[in-house]
Specification:
Elements: E1 3-5, E2 7-8, H1 14-22, E3 25-31, E4 38-43, H2 44-51, E5 61-65, E6 68-79, E7 86-93, E8 99-109, H3 115-118, E9 122-125, E10 129-135, E11 143-146, E12 155-157, E13 168-169, E14 177-182, H4 199-209, H5 222-239
Parallel strand pairs: 1-5, 3-7, 8-11
Antiparallel strand pairs: 2-4, 3-4, 5-6, 6-7, 8-10, 9-14, 10-13, 12-14
Length: 240
């Protein structure tokens, strides 16, 4: 569990809040339970470290104020729209016996031990987070799904996940799907078109229509015609 330092702040105006931020601090508030709300100030560096931690919005942390520690849960954080720097953070006080609704992330392990995934199957994630109703003293940081031994066609449902005691999904009345091991998607290449019979002959005819000639075609045959005529005249004279 993370531990961060905070101080009580007495800011009352927007100008005082801006000065606080310019000095490298982030204003915040702790609320919840029977205790009064507490206005606090935290170092921006500590707030950024908190944000950078995985699933920080579902992780219980301990805030130390004047040597007194209390467990809280980060609930909302706002950022500057230009600089993207944190400008305010809310914490919910953890009160024993109360319950809270949170979105808990799902973590998948042992992908390499799934026969279905080894054979080219695909892990189709339906829900990356599941909304749960949890006791404030028993909040899971993540839901673990073990993929070992899963074949293609397997559906992983909420009933297959071991939830902590007194933790339940907000969706009731049905065993909803978290993920499936789906069959691989195979893209079939289009078949090459088969050439039609007679395509070569049609190409030749088209070429002829365009004025192309074969070797020997289109030669001058007038000399051959004159020779035949002279032979005919000679034959007629001999008969006389």
């Amino acid at each position: 569990m993370s531990l961060i330092q905070a101080t009580i702040r007495n800011t009352k105006t927007r100008g005082e809040l801006n000065t606080l931020r310019k000095d490298g601090n982030v204003p915040g508030i702790i609320y919840g339970g029977e205790s009064a709300n507490e206005k606090i100030s935290l170092l921006k560096k500590e707030v950024k470290n908190l944000i950078n931690k995985e699933n920080f919005l579902s992780n219980v942390i301990s805030i130390k104020i004047d040597e007194k520690e209390q467990k809280v849960l980060p609930r909302e954080i706002t950022f500057d729209i230009i600089s993207d720097e944190p400008t305010h953070i809310d914490f919910l006080r953890i009160v024993k016996g109360s319950k809270i609704i949170l979105e808990i992330p799902v973590k998948f392990i042992n992908n390499e031990l799934s026969p279905g995934l080894k054979r080219g199957g695909v892990l189709n994630i339906v829900r990356r987070k599941v909304e749960l109703k949890c006791p404030t003293e028993n909040i899971p940081t993540e839901l673990v799904v073990d993929l070992e031994g899963l074949e293609i066609g397997t559906s992983i449902k909420i009933s297959s996940i071991n939830l902590p005691e007194n933790v339940s999904p907000t969706i009731q009345g049905r065993d909803f799907v978290i993920a499936t091991v789906a069959a691989p998607t195979i893209v079939k290449e289009p078949e090459k078109p088969v050439e039609a019979e007679g395509e070569t002959a049609e190409g030749t005819e088209a070429a002829a229509a365009d004025g192309e000639t074969k070797p020997g075609e289109g030669e001058d045959k007038s000399a051959e015609t004159d020779k035949s005529k002279k032979e005919d005249d000679k034959s007629a004279a001999e008969k006389k």
